[in-house]
Inverse folding.
């Protein structure tokens, strides 16, 4: 790695975020964070994801040499309600029945901390996703194979739900879990260099 290239310390264990960073060649290391998301009161979607992404970044445990810390949080938002990761089949079915044939929003908050200069850069990305009407056979397959586990809103757009996404307006990588366009904009604002 060249000396003039920065390293991003990602406060997330999400394999999807890791894959997205690898896909565009951003040098990064995954680091643990101990932010308790349940302490964040429900709020408007933008305030919520920004608070959570900042909480994750600030609670990260980077090495002493680290300069750049990144926290990310992604939610599915429908009719004024935040749809979190389903705890069981019942919640998962309830979520996707709400989303069937409708348009929902995916919000991600990204916080980039420059520890060297004690500066915070952050913003939100919003993508509008519309699903076709979901057939019972599709829903049964989804539930039986537990394809909802670990995903905001209970679905992964890069999986079988790619088959039922009628329309996506905005950032696709945001729906996966890390809006790369927004991250790059924060890099340009902050002076983070990876190319």
């Amino acid at each position: 790695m060249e000396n003039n290239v920065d390293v991003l310390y990602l406060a997330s264990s999400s394999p999807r975020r890791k894959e997205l960073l690898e896909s565009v060649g951003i040098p990064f290391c995954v680091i643990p964070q101990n932010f308790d998301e349940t302490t964040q009161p429900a709020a408007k979607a933008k305030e919520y994801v920004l608070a959570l992404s900042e909480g994750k970044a600030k609670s990260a445990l980077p090495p002493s040499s680290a300069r750049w810390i990144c926290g990310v949080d992604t939610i599915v938002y429908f009719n004024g309600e935040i749809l979190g990761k389903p705890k069981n089949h019942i919640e998962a079915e309830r979520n996707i029945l709400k989303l069937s044939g409708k348009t929902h929003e995916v919000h991600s908050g990204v916080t980039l901390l420059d520890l060297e200069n004690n500066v915070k850069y952050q913003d939100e990305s919003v993508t509008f996703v519309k699903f076709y009407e979901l057939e019972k056979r599709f829903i049964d397959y989804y539930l039986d194979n537990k394809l909802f586990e670990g995903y905001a809103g209970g679905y992964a757009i890069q999986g079988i739900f790619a088959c039922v996404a009628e329309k996506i307006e905005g950032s696709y990588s945001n729906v996966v879990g890390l809006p790369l366009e927004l991250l790059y904009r924060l890099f340009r604002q902050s002076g983070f260099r990876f190319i």
In short: The radius of gyration is 17 Å.
